[in-house]
Amino acid sequence: MNKQIRQNIAFTVFRLLSLAVVGILFWILGFITYKGIGVISWQFLTTAPTDGMTAGGIFPAIVGTLCLIAGSAAVAFPLGILSAIYTSEYAGDGKVVRFIRIMTNNLAGIPSIVFGLFGMSLFVNTMGFGDSIIAGSLTLGLLTMPLVIRTTEEALKAIPDTFRQGSYALGASKLQTVSRIVLPAAFPNIITGLILSVGRISGETAPILFTVAAYFLPQLPDSIYSQVMALPYHLYVIAVSGTDLEATRPMAYGTALVLIAIVLIINVSASIIRKKLSKRYA
């Protein structure tokens, strides 16, 4: 068997595997859409649940999910990006930085339910926030911060050193080089990490179960100290709890479809921004 035949076989296998992954994705999306599209309506999206969540809509859960996404992003994005800038641009490559990176990787591997227990102990009980948006946002922010740090570091490392050297040659300081040259060039790739982190935030159930999520709360939050419903926990409750699961199962699929749609809208919007920034700094 000559090299050309082996190469064609390898490319065919890779192509089939790629198509299988895409096919599985569309299978899942198609299944959720088929099962859930029947309950999607304006009333379902804009009203509160009624009759113990066996009827009505999911509007409070949508608002709660968006609040948690925004709150956790406000915690994780600045801290994660600044930490990555420090380890990548300022700290060098010594033992301390290697230790920080090892700990960051270990932190990323901790199960989310452990973060939930930690958030309940620290934010809910010790700091006295109670079950609230701020407690849930801080917990989710800590959960996703390692992902933000690692992806931002990789984005910064991808910028050629010639960019930095050229900036220094023109008399720019370290801060000016990082803020005006390196970060703008790396920002399109940084957004990719932020997209991944938003996807993880939006689908987490265990951390919000301990820190913010309510079983049945058909009203909107009025402050960051309010408890809220959230789509992942709402989906779990109506899918496995109650006395009439057959009646609530379509609502569960509809909730899953809305959650997927929210993540998709966020991802598409971020991808558009990333594409425009890539053209701008190309």
Structural write-up:
It is a single chain. The chain is an all-alpha fold. Helix content is 77%, strand content 1%. The protein has a two-stranded antiparallel ribbon with strand order 1-2. A hairpin with a 4-residue loop joins strand 1 and strand 2.
List the helices and strands and how they pair.
Layout: H1 3-36, H2 42-46, E1 49-50, E2 55-56, H3 59-90, H4 95-108, H5 112-126, H6 133-157, H7 161-169, H8 174-203, H9 206-211, H10 231-240, H11 245-280
Antiparallel strand pairs: 1-2
Structural class: mainly alpha
Element pattern in H and E = HHEEHHHHHHHHH
| Number of domains as seen in the coordinates | 1
CATH topology: MetI-like fold
SS summary, helix count: 11
Question: Could you state the CATH homologous superfamily?
Answer: MetI-like
Shape: globular
Spatial order of strands in the largest sheet = 1-2
Q: Please give the number of β-strands.
A: 2
- What is the gyration radius calculated from CA atoms? 22 Å
Unreliable parts = none
Instruction: Report the CATH C-level class.
Output: Mainly Alpha
Main pleated-sheet profile: 2 strands, antiparallel
Mean pLDDT score: 85
Distance between the termini: 43 Å
What oligomeric state is this?
single chain
Corresponding CATH architecture: Orthogonal Bundle
> What is the share of helical residues?
over 70%
Strand content: under 5%
